[in-house]
Amino acid sequence: MNSTIDGFQIGYGTLDNVRMSEAGKFTDMTIFQSESKNGVYATYDVEFTAKIPISNGDIFYLILPDSIDAPKEPLCNPNKCLDLSTTCTSEKGRIVIQFIVTDSDCLLPDAVFSFNVEGI
Prior knowledge:
Layout: E1 2-3, E2 9-12, E3 19-20, E4 26-37, E5 41-50, E6 59-63, E7 75-78, E8 87-91, E9 94-98, E10 111-118
Antiparallel strand pairs: 1-2, 2-3, 4-5, 5-10, 6-9, 7-10, 8-9
């Protein structure tokens, strides 16, 4: 168990596999389809406000319904608060975005993040 100096649990697991004890809270999240081609190819725009600070290396999972196939090689385009080196990969039924944040204002609570994912 990992804890703060006051003894509050902040995560659990081995040092190489720590899971947060509370999921991040995202308010004002919107996900919408901004572009499609004959229902085969779509771009989805994602925007949310993070109530807890986002750090470099944090991972965001975009879990897709069973009726939507995750692309083998998704293309993610950072907009607000994310660096161009932010990575985007695909796992079964979900897109995995590993955040790279370079703007110090974006490392604070209530920062607004946005990106789009092409090829869904």
